[in-house]
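Hi D.,

Good news: the full-assembly prediction came through. Inputs first.
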Amino acid sequence: MRVIHDIHGGIHPPERKALSQPGTLQSLALPPLLVLPLRQHLGVPARPVVAVGDAVLGGQMLAEANGVMSVPIHAPTSGTVRAIESRPIAHASGLEDICIELETDRQDQWVVLEGMPEWRDREPTMLAEQIRSAGIAGMGGAGFPTAVKLTPGPQRPIELLLINGTECEPYITADDTLMQCYADQLIEGAMILAHILGADSTLIGIEDNKPEAIACVQAAVAKANASIEIASFPTKYPSGGEKQVIEILTGVQVPSGGIPADIGIVCLNPGTAVAAREAIVEGKPLTHRIVTLTGEALSQPCNTLACLGTPIAHLLQEAGWASEVQQRVIHGGPMMGFAVSNLDAPVTKITNCVLAPTQSELPLPAEPKPCIRCGHCAEACPASLLPQQLYWYARAKDQEQLTTHRLFDCIECGACAYVCPSHIPLVQYYRAAKGQIRDSEQERKRSDNSRERFEARERRLAEEVAAREAKRAARKAAAQQQAISGGVDPVQAAIERAKAKKAQQGSSE
Amino acid sequence: MVNWLVNEPLLAALAALILLGSVFGALLGYAAIRFKVEGNPISEQVNALLPQTQCGQCGYPGCRPYSEAIAEGDAINKCPPGGEETIQALADLLDVEPQPLDAEHGVEKEPVVAWIREDECIGCTKCIQACPVDAILGAAKVMHTVIADECTGCDLCLDPCPVDCIDLIPRKQGIGFWHWPLPADRFRPIEVIATDAATRTAA
Amino acid sequence: MRDVLLATVPGVLVMTWFFGPGTLINLVLGAAVALALEYGVMALRGRDPRVAISDLSVLVTSTLLCIALPPYAPWWLIVIGVVTAVLLGKQVFGGLGYNPFNPAMVGYVVLLISFPIQMSSWALPRGLETVPGLSEGLQRVFSPGSIDALTGATPLDLLRQNTGLLFEDLMTSRPELSGWAGLGWFEVNLAFLLGGLWLLYRRVFTWHAPIAMLAALGLCALMGYDGGSSQSGGSALFHLFSGASMFAAFFIITDPVSSAVSNRGRLIFGALIGLLVYLIRTLGNYPDAVAFAVLILNFCAPFIDHYTQPTVYGTRKPTP
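Then the structure:
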């Protein structure tokens, strides 16, 4: 039996998971237009390899990876490329980004897929490369290119592969549904990932509020006779954060500023594992994902296997959306998600949930009052930070103190803001402060670089002037030398030559 | 002597103070010379905080002359590219009051880089000679182009160009440069109609 | 805030039973002055005054101060105290959340030092004197000096003045000292203890500061109680249930704004307050020491915070 540890702090918000009927997948109609952003992952955006007007098949690569921290984009179905332009995307800023717009032709014709069912005989590096070409990025919400995570390098031997089936955020049931409906694929995917990493053991962690998922996964493990351990632990938000779930299941903390691979652990989302299996065994790239559509403004909340690039408006309509005045639509969950400003924005690899709450269900935040230093925030923080101090320093823009108080160890889970009796939007302060500090560091690097270049230029110019001076002085010295040693003074000779020439010219006219 | 000390308390107190003052003053003076730490001259530290655009908007021919002037006591609010953040950093370093940016020297604008319209460039190299950080690539009769990563946006290349083919474009645009703003002190209601978001995010 | 006000009700009722309507008059007068003052100050500062009133924080400040003041104190004492507490204790620092000192204690200490006579004349409790009715109470407050009222020393005062009697004899020597901690005082403290336990149950604050203070106070009293000689400081039971001990533990030191922030810090904060209360009570010039102890520890709270920072996730040095 594995010892289950506890994290510091944490909260117990109402779960509201039954609303979206986890465990059943609805199939919704295909939209006429798909919008595929070139950046659906952490890192450099992909580079398009198709042109406007091209006819493409399902599974065809539309954009290739641009460097190591990048993954390709594939067409989810057949159709024609209508545009490669700026389009609204689901981002907290509300800004647009370059997307490939695909008009679907409803034929759903696919390229020929070549899988490797005998993956056990293949080299791990080759399998990792296949996962990269399939466009797989972390589907838990961060979108880290999975192939990079699977190749931590020889300096970091991996002992444990942890599949993170926690899904601690309220409302979201995408991973729950995946674990119930695709348990066999999950197990095979986990085995593939363990093979790539060379991990000694594999562990699937599931919160205890998902008994059906636990049962399905246990049955799948038994059927495949795999040596995979399943651990269930008490429900608490934010147990599902990578650092938190590692602490709960192993008792070890990921060193600050480091990654789990530093302590021999790699943590992946179950959706990523299933996608990896599809890529390896069937040769199918990442083109769909399970999205939870929930909230009381929907008359048919459900989980659906959505095409990447489906506009959010289309999904909401299919789920029976009855919009209110001042309706918010949240991409992600109520704790870490953000409101979408343009509903034409599409579903991407990191969209696990679309939440359409009514005003009474999730009221707008109350007006923030002054901080009364009650300290509840510090009690709730899973990273044992001092949110109160971070709040004061963020307001004062005191970058030094923010770094000393370890602002960058904050996982932005929102537990502190949830318990604050004065309703202060604490996480917004931390996000703003982090952005400002990163910005300042970039500016400082730039100005240091400019100063070096400027000083180098000054030195170069000074050298040129000095070289010219030296040459002139040398010539002068040589001329003087010649004059002293009794020869013809070259300067004098040159003057006489010039006088003679002038006289000649004058007389010939 | 003790009798005198007892009988003249006022003079005795004065004498004690003078004696103690001399002793400790001598000690401090000795320590200041004997244990002196060679630190960074202050103008170097000031120069490290300035943005190094070498634009001359402060009235000095470059950032180093301005940093030396600041070390002599000049005002710290003359640098528009540095903006409020630099003024605050200088105020913290020098332990003076931060002043708002002196409008006489310019206003704080968003960061820009130069961009040459290549169709119009005649290859005269005048801009290359003007650039203080050698950020323009090119030679005589050969296309000139600005290396955007090295350009500080000082706009010294605009004037020398005989065909006026250089523009200043914003450096920090697009989703890669966006970060969350600090919440306003008063809570703002969310936009009622979607088009409100467009005006908000333009900021 | 509402919970805190509700929790003071048992204590106030017991005080009213033993000392008459004096405390109630204090409370009403203080509340009126505080609300009017807060409204005016916030309007002057350009904030929305109704929002500032609606969170009841100023009402809590005035309630706590008025409970601490002697019943039937002259009306001007109440007014000066409340004005000082609200203005000097809170508003001048920036309002709610910005005050480094406990506002009620600031008001109390200013009054104690400026008007020592009025502050140390407590009405005699029921059993020694007929408790005045409402009209007489109002008269005593609003036209002080018009009625010759009998006031006496509190049990803590009597303990401090004691020079020759053994502690046990002292406790039986005067009617004011009947019971475990003085006539009426034991019941008052018990009522505040009940209110405080209810607040703990409601999770308004954590147990660390109150329990630390009471433990430290009790422990010091135990150690200082040398069997009850005439020099002794009083038994642990006496100290815990007399004066403002329970009131302070659950209502004064738990003010979040001026106390330490982390739970570890609160343990130290409470313990030091308990220690200081005992020391000032036995060695100092004033009979009750809560206000001074609290203010001194308010000074120290940022220092305590600095040294009780939690170990951030991922920064623990790995065990070799």
